């Protein structure tokens, strides 16, 4: 056997477990889900078929269609706000915090990760309530005449999400920033660039892989999340995952839930395609 | 190898073998339930008495429960909690097994809670009621004029806009909106749904949130809202110790009677154990524990639980007022599949607009 052939076999053997895993736990279930999305519910019976009725309904039924837009709007706002907050935080930790304190600063930044996601969401419900800490402080300081409603609104959902995703983005951006040689900034300054120009024209573009990777992860996790909008949003508008849960938990409509899930996956795939050119995982 | 080490290894091996053997011996009872049945205080006495482990899966809404059963293999589930009014739907689909009525006497039950018309079909009993209560109005009497709560009109008057939460279960709330519109729950068909669309949307607009049991409890307890439509003793009773101002009433238009029942799933491989479970739950002790379950409280169907419940617990459950309440409550709507789908569409429209 030639060495090349032997290497190919070894390579195939090494890749096989991951391929089998993907086949068994992604490709086959996904195919089953697509098949299910082409079935439909008659009364309470699932009737197998090959029609696109569920997909047609998603885009013609105003309540279902709105779920897509609500999800996209919330996810877009969360992603942008999280990036805007996480980048300066990561930059401060990477460049302004003394090296011996960086580990502690990072630890503090990700400390909220240590608590349960559900508990954290319910905590936000208490904090953002009309009799919660935020409103009590604002009214107590005279900044507001009376409490305003944040809890059970889209704002509460966004706040809950941003709190979570700023931590995630801080990590991806920080790991990108820390790899940058200080010589880039020195060279730019030697050539007459101001501090702001160094950040805007040199550092920021070099951290795009970290930003885009974190933003993509934020997008994927946020658009597929059910818990935060369910607890903080007050059910006053439904996101795509909430609509999926409604089909599963209430109606037992597995075909429609599958169709909505396929739509969700298509949105995530399109998001990936849109930012694939910046997704350089090896630089994060 | 030293003797001490050998002995240790043998002891560990024997211990492992023994625990594996006991795990293999312990039987499992798989129960499709509502959250009140997940309380360890309720399950533990039965598990200990029968050396069995009760595996529970919670579900919400009969449609979801029936779908779960239909997509399971025979024998996957042994017992099921189901809305008493929906027993017929499950029997129609061959999902429930007959019960030996002679072994499950309802003589000591509240007569209105037996609901034999729904649990006994063509002379065969398929379920026994176990707990009941009301979907009506729950409120914070420190923040709301209790006189206003005597009528459902108050929720549409504008006075409480932004202070109302809606319990996130379409059947009772649509029933209550129907009562406000003068439609009995039994008459809530597809045509009637169009009549209640506008008042439902108005109620949705006046509400602050639409929430599940925990969300509703949190909202009332924290003062986030002052009124909950669809709530009742099942929601305020567990909060009574923390906030005695949380109260509930049945308005003049009436309220909805919910009654949950317990049945054996067709195809179970453990019919005797399943029957024992039902006997335990409907016994005075089981009934008292179920009535005061940590998830939600409710009236026990079996009056004999009154001998086990404390006076304080009975006061919270308003034991003595039950005859009046029962006379003014209507049963849940029992929609066919198409009406049920139309109801859920209407509910989704309310949530999304």
Automatic annotation (TrEMBL), chain A:
Q: Name one GO cellular component term.
A: plasma membrane
Q: Name one GO biological process term.
A: transmembrane transport
* TM annotation in the entry: 12-35, 68-93, 105-127, 158-178, 198-223, 254-279
Taxonomic placement: Bacteria, Pseudomonadati, Pseudomonadota, Alphaproteobacteria, Rhodobacterales
Question: Where is this chain's protein located in or outside the cell?
Answer: Cell membrane
* Family membership noted in the UniProt record: Belongs to the binding-protein-dependent transport system permease family. CysTW subfamily.
Keywords tagged on the record: Cell membrane, Membrane, Transmembrane, Transmembrane helix, Transport
Q: From which organism does this entry originate?
A: Alloyangia mangrovi
Q: Which domain of life is it from?
A: Bacteria
Q: Which residues form a coiled coil?
A: none
Specify the protein's topology with respect to the membrane. Answer: Multi-pass membrane protein
What is the name of the protein in this document?
A: ABC transporter permease
Q: Which Pfam families match?
A: BPD_transp_1 (PF00528)
Tell me which residues make up the ABC transmembrane type-1 domain: 68-275
From TrEMBL, chain B:
Q: Which PANTHER family did the record assign? A: SPERMIDINE/PUTRESCINE-BINDING PERIPLASMIC PROTEIN, SPERMIDINE_PUTRESCINE-BINDING PERIPLASMIC PROTEIN
Q: Where in the cell is it found?
A: Periplasm
Protein name (record): ABC transporter substrate-binding protein
**Keyword Transport on entry:** yes
List the InterPro entries hit by this protein, alphabetically.
SBP (IPR006059), Sperm_putr-bd (IPR001188)
- Give me the segments passing through the membrane: none
- Record's keyword terms, sorted: Periplasm, Signal, Transport
Presence of the UniProt keyword S-adenosyl-L-methionine in the record:
no
Return any one Pfam family short name. SBP_bac_8
One of the protein's GO biological processes? polyamine transport
Top-level taxon of the source organism: Bacteria
Chief location category: periplasm
| Record organism | Alloyangia mangrovi
SUPFAM superfamilies from the UniProt entry: Periplasmic binding protein-like II
Q: A cellular component term (GO) from this record?
A: periplasmic space
CDD domains, from UniProt? Answer: PBP2_PotD_PotF_like
Q: Which residues form the signal peptide?
A: 1-23
């Amino acid at each position: 056997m030639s060495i090349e052939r032997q290497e190919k076999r070894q390579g195939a053997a090494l890749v096989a477990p991951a391929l089998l895993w993907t086949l068994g736990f992604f490709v086959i279930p996904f195919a089953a889900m697509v098949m299910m999305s082409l079935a439909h519910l008659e009364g309470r019976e699932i009737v197998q078929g090959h029609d696109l009725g569920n997909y047609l309904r998603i885009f013609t039924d105003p309540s279902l269609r709105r779920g897509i837009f609500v999800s996209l709007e919330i996810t877009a706002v969360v992603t942008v706000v999280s990036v805007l907050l996480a980048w300066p935080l990561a930059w401060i930790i990477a460049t302004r915090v003394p090296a011996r304190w960086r580990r502690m600063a990072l630890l503090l930044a990700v400390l909220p990760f240590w608590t349960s996601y559900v508990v954290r969401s319910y905590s936000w419900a208490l904090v953002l309530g009309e009799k919660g800490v935020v409103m009590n402080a604002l009214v107590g300081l005279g900044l507001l005449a009376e409490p305003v409603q944040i809890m059970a609104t889209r704002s509460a959902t966004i706040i809950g999400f941003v709190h979570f995703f700023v931590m995630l983005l801080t990590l991806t951006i920080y790991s990108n920033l820390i790899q940058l040689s200080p010589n880039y900034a020195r060279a730019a300054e030697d050539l007459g660039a101001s501090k702001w120009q160094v950040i805007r024209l040199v550092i920021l573009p070099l951290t795009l892989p970290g930003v885009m990777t974190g933003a993509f992860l934020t997008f994927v996790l946020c658009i597929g999340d059910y818990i935060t909008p369910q607890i903080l949003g007050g059910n006053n508008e439904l996101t795509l995952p909430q609509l999926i849960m409604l089909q599963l938990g209430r109606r037992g409509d597995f075909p429609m839930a599958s169709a909505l899930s396929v739509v969700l996956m298509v949105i995530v795939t399109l998001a990936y395609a849109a930012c694939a050119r910046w997704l350089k995982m090896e630089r994060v | 190898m030293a003797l001490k080490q050998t002995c240790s290894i043998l002891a560990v091996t024997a211990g492992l073998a023994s625990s594996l053997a006991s795990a293999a011996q312990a039987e499992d009872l798989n129960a499709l339930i509502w959250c009140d049945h997940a309380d360890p205080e309720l399950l533990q006495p039965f598990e200990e008495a029968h050396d069995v482990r009760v595996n529970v899966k919670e579900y919400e809404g009969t449609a979801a429960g029936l779908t779960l059963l239909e997509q399971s293999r025979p024998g996957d589930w042994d017992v099921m909690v189901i809305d008493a009014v929906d027993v017929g739907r499950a029997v129609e689909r061959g999902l429930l097994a007959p019960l030996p009525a002679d072994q499950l006497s309802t003589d000591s039950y509240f007569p209105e809670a037996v609901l034999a018309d729904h649990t006994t079909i063509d002379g065969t009993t398929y379920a026994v009621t176990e707990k009941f209560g009301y979907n009506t109005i729950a409120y914070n009497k420190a923040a709301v004029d209790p006189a206003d709560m005597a009528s459902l009109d108050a929720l549409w008057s504008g006075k409480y806009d932004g202070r109302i939460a809606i319990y996130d279960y379409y059947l009772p709330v649509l029933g209550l909106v129907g009562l406000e519109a003068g439609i009995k729950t039994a008459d809530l068909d597809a045509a009637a749904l169009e009549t209640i669309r506008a008042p439902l949307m108005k109620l949705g607009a006046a509400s602050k949130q639409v929430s599940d049991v925990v969300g509703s409890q949190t909202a009332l307890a924290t003062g986030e809202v002052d009124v909950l439509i669809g709530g009742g003793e099942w929601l305020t009773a567990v909060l009574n110790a923390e906030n005695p101002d949380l109260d509930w009433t049945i308005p003049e238009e009436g309220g909805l009677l919910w009654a949950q029942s317990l049945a054996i799933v067709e195809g179970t491989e453990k019919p005797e154990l399943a029957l024992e479970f039902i006997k335990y739950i409907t016994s005075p002790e089981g009934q008292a524990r179920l009535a005061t379950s940590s998830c939600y409280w409710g009236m026990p169907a079996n009056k004999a639980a009154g001998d086990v419940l404390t006076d304080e617990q009975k006061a919270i459950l308003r034991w003595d007022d039950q005859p009046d309440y029962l006379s003014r409550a209507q049963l849940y709507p029992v929609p066919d599949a198409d009406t049920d789908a139309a109801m859920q569409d209407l509910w989704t429209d309310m949530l999304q607009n």
